[in-house]
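Quick one, tokens below. Sequence please?
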């Protein structure tokens, strides 16, 4: 079904705002002020972003910021994608862990994340749902600086090659 990602993300960000603020985090949405329509299952897309936002809240210390950005981009082979980034200023993820993040039950061997009781399923579910929509996920992170997850969903008949399911992107400050 057609889904307006801009409006949908406004609702999702609203739903987690209280939890973010309770944890001393600022959360903001930078969206383009027009609909970005993708063919998608609203409930699964909600689950994807709730999982990413829950992580951003859990793995960012008080005083940090979470930013959600929506844009439309032409990626490989002239295909148009809706790209939603969840950017945090949290603990970050070591480079050697990035490839395993999306495995079921995988959690980074890190005291701070071990203390928070997750099961290690959130990202594997998010990845599975994004793949089911013909999309892909990018991740970029720097320990002690933050993490960016970008969910790319096809617009129209755009598709992506199987080997782009997960892309690890070089960290840039102020992405
Ligand atoms: P669950 O989501 O099932 O409650 P979880 O959060 O541990 O548990 P995932 O969401 O799959 O599991 O994340 C896997 C691991 O990746 C986390 O345990 C954490 O170590 C790391 N991680 C995920 N998101 C972030 C982030 N935004 N910043 C830092 N580390 C992260
Ligand atoms: Mg999680």
């Amino acid at each position: 079904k057609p889904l307006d990602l801009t409006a949908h993300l406004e609702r999702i960000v609203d739903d987690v705002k209280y939890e973010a603020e309770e944890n001393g985090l600022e959360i903001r949405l930078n969206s383009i002020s027009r609909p970005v329509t993708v063919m998608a299952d609203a409930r699964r897309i909600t689950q994807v972003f709730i999982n990413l936002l829950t992580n951003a809240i859990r793995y960012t210390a008080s005083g940090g910021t979470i930013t959600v950005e929506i844009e439309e981009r032409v990626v490989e082979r002239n295909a148009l994608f809706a790209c939603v980034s969840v950017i945090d200023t949290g603990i970050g993820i070591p480079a050697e862990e990035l490839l395993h993040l999306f495995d079921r039950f995988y959690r980074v061997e890190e005291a701070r994340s071990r203390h928070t009781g997750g099961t290690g399923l959130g990202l594997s579910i998010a990845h599975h749902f994004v793949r089911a929509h013909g999309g892909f996920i990018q991740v970029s992170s720097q320990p002690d600086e933050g993490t960016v997850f970008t969910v790319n969903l096809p617009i129209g008949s755009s598709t992506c090659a199987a080997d782009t399911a997960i892309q690890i992107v070089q960290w840039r400050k102020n992405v």
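The longest strand covers residues 65-75. Residues 51, 54-55, 118, 122 surround magnesium ion (ligand 2) (CB under 6 Å).
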